[in-house]
Every structure is written in C-alpha cells, then in structure tokens.
Design brief:
It is a multi-pass membrane protein. Keywords: Membrane, Transmembrane, Transmembrane helix. GO terms for molecular function: transmembrane transporter activity. It is found in: Membrane. It is a single chain. The two termini are about 25 Å apart. The longest helix is centred in the middle third of the chain and has 47 residues. The relative contact order is 0.13. The protein has 6 helices and no strands. α3 runs antiparallel to α4. By secondary structure, the protein is mainly α. It has one domain.
Length: about 170
C-alpha cells in the first residue's frame, strides 16, 4: 500500500488518455457498424466482426452499375448518420464539461486534486457502460442511453478535469 502513494499523476494521465483514444476508436467503428447492420441486414443476428457495408457493396457491385451506385448512396446515408451521432456524443461530453470543469477545479483547492481527478475518471468509466450495453444488446438498449452516459461523463468533468487539475 505504501508504493501506491508514490504514483504520480503523469502515468495515470497517460493511461487515461490512451484508453480514451482506444475508446473513441471502438465507439466510432462500432456505431458505424451498428448502423450498417440496421440498414443492410436488420433481420439477421450477426456474430462475426466483418464489415456489413463493405460486404453489401461487394455483392451489389457485381450486378450492375446502377445497383452499385444505389449501394454507394445507401452507404453515404449510413456514414452521415454515424457522423451525426458521433458529433452529438462529443457535444454531450464537451458542453457540460466546460461548466463543470470550472466548478470542479475550484473545488480541488478545497478537497485536493486526487478526489477531483477520481471524479472525472469515474464519470468517464460510468459513461462507457451504456456503450457496452448498446453494442451487446443493440435491439434492446436505445442509443439515447449512450448519449446520457456521455452527459454523465461531461458533468463529472470527464478527462478534461485531469488536465485542468494538473496545470494548477
């Protein structure tokens, strides 16, 4: 237990931001894939990790140019929908975090940095749970729960509070 007190903030920050990068990569790819499944094969229960949009394009492009063009337009619709949702998810974190970071950084003077940093990390971890549920049970869990999870991360300061408290 004595060695845990010697851990500095820098390794924790590195691990948090590395995890955030991989989280966003998986989130964006997973949302795009889920929308592809909804668009191209809504009745199938897919367990493999192949890209449905790419498979659909390859199958349809063998028939005719007009069918391939139709597939391109449908894939563009999927990309637009996924991009819109990803932007909404980002705004759901950033907007409340701008306000809560000001409040939480002021509270860090009273309660210390560690408590406030743990609140930000905890809120980020809680925000991942709806995303896991959405990818595991896509027909049951609504996408709005993922947006709600991101709002929780934003209110807790998200990982931006780690930077704010480190700079002080």
């Amino acid at each position: 237990m004595g060695n845990l007190r010697k851990i500095t903030v820098e390794p924790v920050m590195f691990l948090c931001f590395a995890g955030l990068y991989y989280y966003q990569l998986v989130r964006d790819t997973g949302i795009y894939r889920q929308f592809c499944v909804e668009k191209f094969s809504p009745n199938e229960n897919l367990t493999d990790l192949t890209t449905i949009c790419g498979q659909q394009r390859a199958i349809l492009s063998n028939f005719s140019d007009s069918t391939a063009l139709s597939s391109d337009l449908e894939e563009d619709q999927v990309q637009k929908r996924a991009t819109l949702i990803i932007m909404i998810l980002s705004l759901a974190v950033i907007t409340p975090a701008m306000i809560s970071d000001l409040i939480l950084s002021a509270l860090s003077d009273r309660f210390g940095r560690k408590v406030i940093i743990l609140i930000g990390i905890g809120g980020t971890l809680v925000s991942i749970l709806p995303l896991i549920a959405y990818f595991t049970f896509p027909n049951t869990v609504p996408l709005y729960s993922v947006i709600g999870g991101n709002l929780v991360a934003g209110v807790s300061g998200s990982l931006a509070i780690v930077l704010v408290d480190k700079i002080e």
